[in-house]
């Protein structure tokens, strides 16, 4: 079920590398990579899970409201992280030229489905 | 000079709270807040500067290329952080309903001017 949602997000976003549903503890529930890729998405998500936890904590301390989304753009990739529940997030990685807006929209659209399946 | 660039970014982005030009060490060079605001932007930027440093380091370690931009969306605000040089970044804060796309565009547009003035 989770793999179908991740597949929909990756296939419908133009220029996506893959997506992973992961706990803030760095343990993945499910992932979807359509192609062999030099980039290890799971490692990327694990490395960023601590940072995401830190951002979430900071948002709460500063009373900015709950963290919903974090995007990181580098020279080569765009990583969009969407909080699903207090324990899980989805990380979608795109090539730099990928459709960032479409990816964000699809993550938002699929959040309700993922929340329902997770709780 | 820096204040004029920050003012242009804030005034031209619809729904912006303010902007700050800051070192990764959490020390601000310049800031621009058009209105009295409950949110202390400088505190927000300081709190996030460590996180940004961590993201930058992780991007390098994972060979994703240099970090260019980080966006954080919470229930109340959107914070867009743009790397200017290896030492400085600009943090633009918008209300949640603000024009995220315009803010990103203006930060990109003004980067060259800021780089020139900083180095």
Q: Based on DSSP secondary structure assignment, what is the total number of beta strands of chain A?
A: 5
Which strand-content bin applies to the residues of chain A?
25-35%
**Global geometry of chain A:** globular
**Count of runs of 4 or more consecutive helical residues of chain A:** 3
Question: What do the pLDDT scores of chain A average to?
Answer: 91
Q: What's the multimeric state?
A: homodimer
Q: What is the CATH architecture assignment of chain A? A: 2-Layer Sandwich
- Largest interface in this structure: A-B, 28 and 28 residues
Biggest β-sheet of chain A, characterized? 5 strands, antiparallel
| Radius of gyration based on Cα positions of chain A | 13 Å
- Biggest sheet of chain A: strands side by side, in what order? 2-1-5-4-3
CATH fourth-tier homologous superfamily of chain A:
Dynein light chain 2a, cytoplasmic
CATH topology of chain A: Beta-Lactamase
* Uncertain residue ranges of chain A: none
Structural class by sheet pairing and helices of chain A: alpha+beta
Instruction: List the domain count of chain A as a whole number.
Output: 1
What is the helical fraction of chain A, as a range of percent? Answer: 40-55%
CATH class of chain A equals Alpha Beta
Give the N-terminus to C-terminus distance of chain A in angstroms.
Answer: 14 Å
Tell me the series of helices and strands of chain A, N- to C-terminal. HEEHEEEH
